[in-house]
Amino acid sequence: MTGGEWEAGTKAAALDLHGSHIVIGQPLDRAGATAIREAIAGRRAAIITDTNVAPLHAAPLADRLGVDADAILTITAGEGSKTRDEWARLTDSLLARGYGRDSVIIAVGGGVVGDLAGFVAATYMRGIAVIQVPTTLLAMVDAAVGGKTGVDAAAGKNLIGAFHRPILVVADPATLATLPDVQFRNGLGEALKHALITSAAELRWLVDRAPLLAAGEARPVALLADLVERNIRIKTDIVARDERESGPRKMLNFGHTIGHAVESVSGYSLLHGECVGIGMRAEAMIAAKLGLASPVLAGQITGALGTLGLPLRPPHRLDPMAVGAATRSDKKARAGVIEYALLADIGVPANGGHAYGTPVPERVAREAIADL
Ligand SMILES: NC(=O)c1ccc[n+]([C@@H]2O[C@H](COP(=O)([O-])OP(=O)(O)OC[C@H]3O[C@@H](n4cnc5c(N)ncnc54)[C@H](O)[C@@H]3O)[C@@H](O)[C@H]2O)c1
Ligand SMILES: [Zn+2]
Q1: Please, where are the H alpha helices in 22-106?
Q2: Residue 139: Cβ within 10 Å count
Q3: Is there a catalytic annotation at residue 328?
Q4: Read out DSSP for 229-243?
Q5: From atom 35 of ligand 1, which residue's Cα is the shortest distance away?
Q6: Which of 27, 31, 284, 355 is 20 to 30 A away from residue 366, measured at CA?
Q7: Of 57, 148, 157, 281, catalytic
Q8: How far is the CA of 179 from the centre of ligand 1 (A)?
Q9: What pLDDT is recorded for position 3?
Q10: 26 CB near ligand 1 (under 6 Å)
Q11: Is the CB of 116 under 6 A from ligand 1?
């Protein structure tokens, strides 16, 4: 198989979230495939993947599972495929091939494949089983876990979707060996967010390992397995307490209100994880301006971003007015006021008198953007 070398001592972990079984650190060419075969349990399976991942990981996995080539449905790699058109094409393909209600979709790829294939599974014949096999760091630490699926619309990203839990998630960190470095750093942005909303110890663990994580293809698989496991535990702990995002799960949006705005105003020229990093820095500056956090927090975030090789600001100055206006299209607006998931300190939500969302005047957001 293509991928990093498995060293002796790489530990495997398994956990459960709302009925989803999550297997971390089992090689896809051995125990990982066995777990998938058992979850399929004789049902008819289709694999959904993209043009990059198909030859690298999906086709070899199909071979091992005995899924024939005709049952591999491939989308063009990239966010541009996360559309209702592509959803229609995939569901039509399944119908044309006679897939029934008792079928299972195996999503092999990054968050785009996971979200789209998950939405196909959520809606096909009112819902069929999905198995998530994430192959990007972002998908392993974030997208594949938690049950959110969906597609983009002209009006914005992820606006059409459903909650649909996978029956199984298999994260094999060895698949990350083929991932371009920039995509790896994209996932590190979300990993940093998880550390920041958890504890100073978690942040230290991540930052201390930055040199090893920067080692490209030479990244130790055991370290990656550890990284993925820590992140999945953090996310599952939060989601287990709040599947539909009414309270604690909002903390997963730290950095995302400004992050999404920066992403859209920069014309999606920066990756999501990079924008979340910039967003976390800006939102820490906002918390300081509102008197909810010490300015030290923004400094700590700046230091961590630098150590992990993530950008501190967009490469071109963005108009604070435009970024401020873009925050208004965030889904997290309630009655016209934008609520942010701010931190008071590492691991400590800023409540500002509210449970997990703090209303932020747009003027303050614009000031923080200008200060970046
Ligand atoms: N559902 C959720 O909770 C959730 C959470 C976070 C993000 N997302 C979504 O995830 C998407 C982003 O996911 P992503 O960053 O994984 O992007 P992606 O799926 O586009 O993958 C990034 C690139 O890496 C390639 N790739 C994937 N695995 C590879 C591998 N092992 N080797 C070589 N190339 C590989 C892909 O073909 C693609 O070109 C966004 O659409 C976002 O909205 C969803
Ligand atoms: Zn995110």
Answers
A1: 31-40, 53, 59-65, 84-96
A2: 26
A3: no
A4: HHHHHHHHHHHHH-T
A5: 179
A6: 355
A7: 148
A8: 10
A9: 41
A10: no
A11: no
Q: How far is CA 95 from the centre of its chain?
A: 29
User: Which pLDDT tens digit goes with each residue over 69-108?
Assistant: 999 999 999 999 999 999 999 999 999 999 999 999 999 9
**Which residues have C-beta within 8 Å of that of residue 80, sequence separation ≥ 6?**
none
Which of 136, 193, 276 has most ligand 1 atoms within 8 Å of CB, for mutation?
136
Q: Looking at the DSSP assignment, which residues form a beta bridge with residue 358? A: 340
pLDDT at 218 over 80: yes
Q: How far apart are the first and last CA of the chain?
A: 44
CB-ligand 1 contact for 143 (6 Å cutoff): yes
- Please give the structure tokens belonging to residue 19: 């009925």
C-alpha atoms less than 13 angstroms from C-alpha of 355 in its C-beta half-sphere: 7
Q: Which atom of ligand 1 is nearest to the CA of 50?
A: 37
The DSSP letter of residue 98 is: T
d(Cα 125, Cα 136) in Å, to the nearest integer? Answer: 29
Is 125:78 a contact under the CB 8 Å cutoff?
Answer: no
Cα separation of 315 and 293, whole Å? Answer: 27
